[in-house]
Amino acid sequence: MAASASRLFRKHWKGYAFLIPVFAVLATFKYIPFFNALIMSFYDWNGANVRTFIGLDNFVQLFRDRTFYVSLKNMGIFTVTGVLIQLTVPLLAAVLVFHIKHNRLQNMFKLWFVIPLVIPGIVIYLTWQWIFAGDYGVLNELLGQIGLESWTHAWLGESKTALWSVIFVNFPWIGGITFLIYLAGLMAISGELFEVAKLDGMNALQRFMHLELPLVRSQLKMVMVLTIIQQIQSFENILVLTNGGPGQSTMTPALYLYIQGFSYSKMGYASAIGLVLFLLLLLLTWANNRFVKNTETID
To answer: For the ABC transmembrane type-1 domain, which residue ranges apply (predicted)?
Structure first.
């Protein structure tokens, strides 16, 4: 085995040499910071001149930190709702676009749903902040115009509405990479299978349930992993929209990490939060790979 690998390497060493810059960049911006954060999680470190070894004190403090538990609860809500949305709405949109017979119209819809990919996220979040603004926001103005003044709120400024307002951002949740993943999965299905479904007299719902849905299971699994990773790591939307408020009603672990590290210079504590999030993400990814089947493994 080792001799065979050695011969393969000698034969294709030029190709492997082109990977050296890639691994160098990954090591510089990914691996080295990760292992440095792992080490610093055991220190009282301010990111500069204070660096004192304190063992597991950061983790003891973290698991006694009420704000951290509130942020975990909020992250759980964001993750569950995000997964449910990304496993349904973009998939249905992709199915509808896939079955449009007119090529020009189909391409127009594809372009329409891909456009959000080229819009910076900060622009989208600022736009939604303007929509949800309390006194002059678009949503409150609209409600007032149709006679529903009693429904108006400071959507991002009230604890009972802030969390769900953040979830509502990006409505109708279709545009972007998720839509393309599902569309690519549908386009990979053999046309013969659709012909067979037509001959069997399947209606649109039966075709979706018994043909399309099982054959895009791999895409569903990928989207689930990507959504979980995104929800656990994401903090810029909360930072722009609410900064974790009002109170702690929209605080997330990633934003809490950012605040502890860059607002209070508690880099060691922030590193401990990051390590816990990494382990949680690793566990969820393993569970997804272990219990969610790919298309190829369907019985």
So the answer is: 72-288
Quick check: 89 and 173 in contact, CB under 8 A? yes
Tell me whether residue 47 is in a domain.
no
CATH classification of the domain holding 232: 1.10.3720.10
Task: Report CA-CA distances (Å) from 180 to 100, 117, 190.
Answer: 15, 11, 18
Give SS3 for 64: coil
Three-class secondary structure of residue 96 per DSSP: helix
Which residue range is the domain that position 227 belongs to? Answer: 58-297
- Half-sphere exposure of 30 toward its Cβ, with a 13 Å CA cutoff? 6
Q: What is the DSSP letter of 189?
A: S
pTM of the entire structure? 0.87
**Number of structural domains found in the chain:** 2
Q: How far apart are CA 181 and CA 227, in angstroms?
A: 13
pLDDT, one tens digit per residue, over 152-174 is 888 898 888 999 999 998 887 88
**53 within some domain:** no
Q: Hey, is 45 helix, strand or coil?
A: strand
DSSP of 256-267: HHHIIIIIS--H
Contact 170, 188 (CB under 8 A): no
- Which contacts of 130-139 are long-range, i.e. CB under 8 A and separated by 24 or more positions? 132/156, 132/165, 132/241
